[in-house]
């Protein structure tokens, strides 16, 4: 999966005019559907004279499932939100919202024309955006000694893992995020390197932008 990395305060942008109607698309990264709805509302507020603000949003939940939401915002059913969502699906996007604002020009486009226009607008803002891959990871908490820290971090580096949190006391409590495809090899490497002295404790799943 991929995500757009442009932020809500500076989204990716694309616009064009079709038969006197202006179509303006904005796309950005969001971490939840609630954030996506906040962005849609901000677009509506900044375009008070627009006839429609259609949108689609895709976000991953804590269990790795994708949640989707879309709206035609008054356009005929299936002619606005669905074409935007189809563009996002075709680009394997998640944690992303795309809006298309339409200023009506007085000429009806018909269902086919609307679908093409909303698809073109969404594709334009997606193509103009900055993107990054999203990697599914497993999180592990580990208790390690100070003398083990350097070697342990070397193993993390070798398996494309990332330290999420470190707490220093008598020993070190460390939480690491390991790509799912590397997790079994990582656990085997920890076992072999430290002869069972470090036992990573699985504590959930997460996603990481790379």
Give the number of domains: 2
The total count of helices amounts to 5
Write the H/E string, N to C: EEEHEEHEHEHEEHE
Q: What fold name stands as the CATH topology of the largest domain?
A: Ribosomal Protein S5, domain 2
CATH class of the largest domain: Alpha Beta
Structural class of the secondary elements? alpha+beta
DSSP E strands, number:
10
Low-confidence stretches: none
Looking at the structure, what is the overall shape?
elongated
Q: Tell me the radius of gyration.
A: 22 Å
- In whole angstroms, the N-to-C terminal distance is 11 Å
- In terms of DSSP E residues, the strand content is 35-45%
Quick one: CATH superfamily of the largest domain? Impact, N-terminal domain
Largest sheet: number of strands, sense, barrel closure: 5 strands, antiparallel
Q: Tell me, rounded to a whole number, the average pLDDT.
A: 95
Give the SSE map:
Layout: E1 2-4, E2 12-18, E3 21-29, H1 33-46, E4 52-60, E5 66-71, H2 81-90, E6 96-103, H3 110-127, E7 131-144, H4 149-158, E8 162-168, E9 172-179, H5 180-194, E10 201-209
Task: Tell me briefly what this model is.
The chain is built from five helices and ten strands, in the order βββαββαβαβαββαβ. The protein has helices spanning 33-46, 81-90, 110-127, 149-158, 180-194; strands spanning 2-4, 12-18, 21-29, 52-60, 66-71, 96-103, 131-144, 162-168, 172-179, 201-209.
